[in-house]
Amino acid sequence: MLAVLALPAGAGPVTPDRAQELRHLVRQDCGSCHGLRLTGGLGRAITPADLAGRDPDELTTVILDGMPGTAMPGWRPLLSEDEARWIADYLLQKETP
Amino acid sequence: MIFRAIALLMLLIAPAGAEELRGTGDLGLIVEREAGSLLVVDRSERAAIGRIEGLGDLSHASLVYSPDERFAYVFGRDGGLTKVDILTRAIVNRVVQAGNSIGGAISDDGRLVAVSNYEPGGVKVFDAETLELVADIPMGSKTVGIADVPGGRFVVATWDTGEVWLLDHSAEPADPVITKLTGIGANPYDALLTGDGRTYIVGLFGEKGLTAVDLWQDPPRATRFLPDYGKDQPDLPVYKMPHLQGWTLADGIYALPAVGLHQLLWVDAATLSEIARTDLAGQPVFAVARPDKREVWVNFAPPDNDKVQVVDVLTRQVTDTLTPGKGVLHMEFAPRGREVWLSVRDENRVEIRDARSHELLGEIPAQAPSGIFFTDRAHRTGL
């Protein structure tokens, strides 16, 4: 199971309930392409080790606006900027299940 | 004589097979992707009758059946190829054959199992009996949409390089004759093979349109079609790639999920020209024909994955919108179409509906269920 590390304070108004939903979204919906364990699939691996050194702001932008020319869609219609930033931080910090 | 005595003894001390003499034609397997397990289900009982555990990472897992409908070969995301016995509900054999795999197929004689890989790419072919490696075919690309073609062959498309490879294992299983078609289109994301084994349809993500490959021609002939569907409309984000398997050929017409549009595309199979479109509730993932081909059932990518829409083939109108619950990942019809089973991932259950009245007939608890596979798939080409 997921072992979630302490989340940073700057994650904005993401409530604990919403955070639970976002964890689920990462695992299931990001997992559609990146794998349930985020070890990659049609999309690249996005475990903390794979993302090491990436700038959270940049990841937030990728989550919100996607990567043109690839299959990575922009999630702006479904996520707020705070939520995208929460996911970026989560991906960088979480332990691999 | 000694062997016979040992065999008899084995039967006596192996209760699972011997006690419960039964057929497998009404059985099925449901992937529990989070748990890495398979639920063994009985269609007649509308119930789970067992569980097989220890299959690794089953995100996006699929499986095929042996010709006797007793064994299943399960393709896991972690590169695992697992052979399970649905009668004894046990893992018979398991090999981790790659870093990351996406699906597989079994040859028409049931002797070879081919696995399509993302990492390191290409296809590996195994002996169905022993799971020993028979052939390793690197393709310099992730591969998608693998299917069995009559005559001991497999066909597969390459995501990175836009090719279709036809592998003919009929003469020498370990050294297949390879026919490669290039220029299929940018980023094939999935493909389907028609039930007669003739036409391989490749869906493209990197550009508009699809490619049909006529495998009856020698060499196989590729034709692009619908090259500009949706050109005049902005692309909507695709939060889950459509699947082409489970596609429809009804009354000489294909019903195909659009990419980046909330529509079902109707295509004349003979001319490969568009006939009509049906507006849907979201990005379609599966568009599956009821076995009588009268209706097409469609499920959706997030955020609309709580819904299922039923489309009438004659009128091409949506006739019903069901909301089974969050995370409807897959639909599987009973072989003759009496009922349909739907996996509802986020509610940890599979629901069974009458395929005509759409009435709920039953429910089975399952842990984050995804793919549902009934054993009749053993006898169908292209699954």
Automatic annotation (TrEMBL), chain A:
Residues 17-95 form the Cytochrome c domain. It comes from the Bacteria. Pfam families: Cytochrome_CBB3. Keywords: Heme, Iron, Metal-binding. The keyword Calcium does not apply. The keyword Mitochondrion does not apply. GO terms for molecular function: electron transfer activity; heme binding; metal ion binding. This is Cytochrome c55X. It comes from Paracoccus halophilus. The lineage of its organism: Bacteria, Pseudomonadati, Pseudomonadota, Alphaproteobacteria, Rhodobacterales.
From TrEMBL, chain B:
The keyword Signal applies. Residues 1-18 form the signal peptide. The keyword DNA-binding does not apply. Keywords: Signal. SUPFAM superfamilies: C-terminal (heme d1) domain of cytochrome cd1-nitrite reductase. CDD domains: 8prop_hemeD1_NirF. This is protein NirF. It comes from Paracoccus halophilus. The lineage of its organism: Bacteria, Pseudomonadati, Pseudomonadota, Alphaproteobacteria, Rhodobacterales.
